[in-house]
């Protein structure tokens, strides 16, 4: 697994393990070292992880333990690797293969349902965005223009057709190992939803708009036009959510990047 940065260790674990905090917005991930063994440790990760590991979409799950204070700690295989670049997100065909596997997996959908995984409609995402929206974002003309478009063009997708989605398929959650195995990690936002959620996140943030149709034709061979409309909507929704997150985390470069992408996509 890949990580960087530092943060305070805030939970007690087996004293035989040396815990090295990893950078992230959850404060729950660590590199664990014991003797010659290295693992990726995470507190209170989704129970969905075991099923994802079996299907090879995320690094191998090694074990799960409960700590004295009630935390559930999972250990996954550690590997030397890195995040995909923005260019690789647009060109790496393995990204499409993994999403196709995820979205078409009946077993993963069934597992997420049994775990009472949340279902989200397009309207649910709009509502989440406006909840506690900071005033500067409310007053931004571009953001309000995009929000109004999304509000007026809500896509409908039959809930019975919802699939297992990652829910936050940004490039920081795509890790490639030194031997070129690609994994999708950090499944805390996994949800039953329109698959256009994951597709829109990737196309909206990393793929030139003129290449969307070709990219989608590799994911799905029929009715690309219908899929395109929904992906367009979720591309805007994903960027709005990322803009809000970046503003709250004071990530100014990321905030400006998202604003530029929104301007490019919704300039017409």
TrEMBL record:
Coiled-coil intervals: none
GO molecular function, one term: transferase activity
Residue stretches making up the Aminoglycoside phosphotransferase domain: 48-223
SUPFAM superfamilies listed in its UniProt record: Protein kinase-like (PK-like)
Source organism: Vagococcus silagei
Source species taxonomy: Bacteria, Bacillati, Bacillota, Bacilli, Lactobacillales
Name of protein: Aminoglycoside phosphotransferase
Keywords: Transferase
């Amino acid at each position: 697994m890949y990580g960087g940065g530092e943060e305070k260790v805030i939970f007690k674990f087996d004293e035989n393990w040396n815990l090295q905090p990893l950078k992230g917005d959850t404060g729950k991930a660590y590199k664990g070292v014991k003797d010659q063994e290295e693992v990726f440790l995470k507190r209170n990760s989704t129970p969905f992880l075991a099923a994802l590991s079996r299907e090879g979409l995320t690094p191998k799950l090694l074990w799960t333990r409960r700590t004295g204070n009630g935390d559930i700690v999972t250990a996954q295989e550690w590997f030397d690797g890195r995040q995909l670049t923005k260019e690789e997100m647009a060109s790496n065909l393995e990204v499409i293969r993994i999403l196709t596997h995820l979205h078409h997996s009946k077993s993963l959908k069934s597992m997420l349902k049994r775990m009472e995984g949340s279902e989200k409609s397009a309207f649910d995402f709009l509502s989440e965005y406006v909840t506690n929206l900071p005033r500067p974002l409310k007053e931004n003309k571009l953001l309000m223009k995009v929000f109004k478009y999304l509000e007026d063009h809500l896509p409908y997708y039959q809930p019975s057709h919802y699939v297992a989605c990652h829910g936050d398929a940004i490039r920081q959650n795509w890790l490639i190992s030194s031997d070129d195995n690609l994994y999708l990690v950090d499944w805390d936002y996994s949800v039953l939803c329109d698959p256009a959620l994951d597709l829109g996140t990737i196309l909206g943030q990393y793929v030139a708009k003129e290449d969307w149709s070709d990219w989608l034709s590799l994911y799905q061979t029929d009715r690309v036009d219908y899929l395109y409309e929904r992906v367009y909507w979720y591309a805007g929704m994903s960027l709005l959510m990322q803009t809000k997150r970046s503003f709250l985390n004071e990530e100014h470069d990321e905030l400006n990047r998202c604003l530029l992408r929104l301007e490019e996509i919704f300039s017409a």
